[in-house]
Specification:
The radius of gyration is 23 Å and the shape is globular. Helix 3 links the parallel strand 3 and strand 4. It is an alpha/beta fold and 170 residues long. The chain has eight helices and five strands; from the N terminus they run E-H-E-H-E-H-E-H-E-H-H-H-H. The chain has a five-stranded parallel β-sheet, with helices on both faces. The chain folds into two domains: 117 residues, 3-Layer(aba) Sandwich (Rossmann fold), CATH 3.40.50.2300; 35 residues, no CATH class. Helix 2 packs parallel to helix 3.
Length: 170
């Protein structure tokens, strides 16, 4: 999962990044203090057939505010989930015009990030992870992987031969 964190205040950005990493330890968190640099990074990702799944954006920033950045991010990849992070509650109505998934008040905490994850508009699909826990099911392939050659004694004949890996063992 690719997560973008943008805040022009260094300390606030560090706190945001720490809260995200606590809440979602497996995520790749990329942080920027300048919205333009974040935008360039996202454009570069698109050239590599990748995208940002979730963006935590400060609303009040110089040069380009978080609302403008969110609109630009949505133009690049419309399924980017946007979460606004700010110390100013007056932006809440404007934030949901993007549309945003959530609006978190500073200081950001692990719980705030986890609550925002529950409200995502576009589900994030993970790739490259096991869909099953091999130790929770009984299957001759997993038994073989765990026990090695002793699994051959358990399964022989037609049942064993229907698996491509079995032909190398018999």
């Amino acid at each position: 999962m690719n997560i973008l964190a943008v805040d022009d205040e260094r300390i606030q950005l560090e706190e945001l990044e720490e809260a995200i990493k606590e809440a979602i330890p497996d995520a790749a968190v990329i942080s920027f203090r300048k919205p333009k640099e974040a935008l360039e990074y996202v454009k570069e990702l698109k050239t590599k057939d990748s995208h940002v799944d979730l963006a935590f954006l400060d609303v009040e920033m110089s040069v380009m505010n978080g609302l403008e950045l969110a609109k630009e991010l949505k133009e690049i990849y419309k399924k980017t989930n946007i979460v606004f992070v700010t110390g100013y509650s007056q932006y809440a109505v404007d934030a949901f015009s993007v549309p945003a998934c959530d609006y978190i008040m500073k200081p950001v905490s692990k719980d705030g990030v986890l609550k925002a994850m529950e409200r995502l508009r576009n589900p994030i699909k993970e790739h490259g992870h096991l869909a099953v826990a091999p130790d929770k099911i009984s299957c001759d392939m997993y038994d073989y992987l765990k026990a090695g050659n002793s699994a051959i004694k358990n399964y022989t004949g037609k049942l064993m031969m229907q698996y491509s890996w079995a032909e190398f063992l018999l």
